[in-house]
Amino acid sequence: MGHLLTRHFLWGLLPALLAPLLFLAYLPALEATAAELSVWRWPLTALGLAGMALAALFGQWRHVLALAAVIGLPMLGDTDLLARSAGHQALAVLITALVLAGAAVLPERGPTGPILWLAAGLAVLMLGLMLRDIALPMLVARPLAEFELAGRSLALTRSAVAVLLCALAVTVLQGWRPDPLRAGLLAASLCLLPLTGALGTEPPLRLAIAPMLLLLWAGLLLHAWHLAFRDELTGLPNRRALELRLRAGPRPVGMVDVDHFKRFNDRHGHDAGDQVLRRVAETLAGTRGARAYRYGGEEFTLVFRRRPLARLKDFLEEQRRALAERPFRLRTSQRRRKQRGKGGGRGIKITASFGLAMPRRGETPAAVIKRADQALYRAKAAGRNRVEIDE
Q1: CA-based nearest residue to 103, from 7, 31, 179, 3
Q2: Pairing relationship of beta strands 290-296 and 299-304 according to DSSP bridges
């Protein structure tokens, strides 16, 4: 449970805590003029276009739209599309916040999915900005409250409240289902707060583009890291991540294999097999003193910190019992639709065999894994659902 809470905090709540730091970072630049910031126009635009190309390569069309909105925000300030008023600037900021929130919340279904409707709605709102006599911009910019803090006048505007509500909605979703791309979108949306008049001044729209692009790029790079080093099915680090971990030197290694998995797959189908692998991965991820990895197929690896042998065996026995003594509830798609809320599905017993190897002086990590694998096969040959050790 502890590792899950840590993961949810890092990916869900940490971006929301960036808001005070972003406010402090903006303070020295609030007096900058649009002319002073225009020198960064084309380099930042190129950075945004490169990010759009990378996002499209990854099939992340929501991120493509988010980057396009960020690039377009300062461009609006440099053209005659916007009236030179705080109201129209606040409306542009609000539209960008809605785009980022939509990109974070909508499911990814390609360029013709929900993202297309979001883009269409964005186009309609942008057209509305050209209407100079509408009352909406000034309504958005109107402050709800004004106060002073550390000698600076602050204002709580409607657009600031809207940006915060969008960020809050994304934070809730991110805390429930962490995702690196969504973390970047959340952190980028918080960069819009100083542009809403909340700091008592109206800085140029271009002020936000650099930190927003960097945060969106960070989300893309973290997504690429996940693709390379995370197993998509179980969420555990994959074999490539295991190899990187063991470059630091050999550690005690436990190899785990789900008993009779092929027979289970043949009988219940691959969807049920995937459920079993996710259940086993969730259990192993909670192993005390170890990091769990998906080795391949139905095999997993546990890399331990250096502990006494008896202690490590106790940790493996805990996980063996946790799997064997808690029936697995098989859920089919038909049951999900018709029997939701009516108790668990059919109980199926899952067991696994464990092999543990302690590193020897001068031994390579590959040799430790090989001995742990041999101990695992001895456990299976001895009847399965047991722990064997190779000292």
Answers
A1: 179
A2: antiparallel
Distance from CA of residue 153 to its chain's centroid? 36
Residue 342 in tokens:
């009516």
Place of tokens 């590792």: 3
pLDDT at 28: 64
Helix (H, G, I), strand (E, B) or coil at 75: helix
As a whole number of angstroms, the longest Cα–Cα distance in the chain is 83
The answer to whether residues 29 and 149 belong to one domain is yes
Among the listed residues 218, 213, 216, 211, the one whose alpha carbon sits nearest the alpha carbon of residue 22: 211
**Do both 189 and 270 map to the same domain?**
no
Question: What confidence category does residue 147 fall into, taking pLDDT thresholds of 50, 70 and 90?
Answer: low
| Domains identified in the chain, total number | 2
Q: Which of 189, 222, 255 is the last residue of a domain?
A: 222
Q: Do the bridges between strand 387-390 and strand 352-357 make them parallel or antiparallel, or are there none, so unpaired?
A: parallel
First-to-final CA distance of the chain: 30
Contacts of 307 (CB under 8 A, 6+ apart): 252, 289, 315
For tokens 């998995």, the residue is: 261
CA distance 161 to 140: 10
Task: State the residue range of the domain holding 269.
Answer: 239-390
- Dig out the tokens for 54 from the structure: 């990378």
Q: What is the pLDDT of residues 151-190, one digit of tens each?
A: 656 667 777 888 888 888 888 887 777 888 888 898 888 8
Backbone angles phi, psi at 167, to 5 degrees: -65, -35
What does the chain come to in residues?
391
Asked if the structure places residue 348 within a domain, the reply is yes
CA distance 304 to 251: 6
Stated pTM of the model: 0.77
Helices marked H in the chain — which ranges? 2-8, 18-26, 34-37, 41-57, 61-77, 86-105, 114-129, 136-141, 158-176, 180-190, 209-229, 239-246, 261-268, 270-285, 309-325, 333-338, 365-381
CB within 8 Å of 344: residues ≥ 6 apart? 329
Q: What angle do CA 12, 18, 22 make, to 5 degrees?
A: 150
Does residue 87 sit in the same domain as residue 161? yes
pLDDT tier, 216 (very low <50, low <70, confident <90, very high otherwise): very high
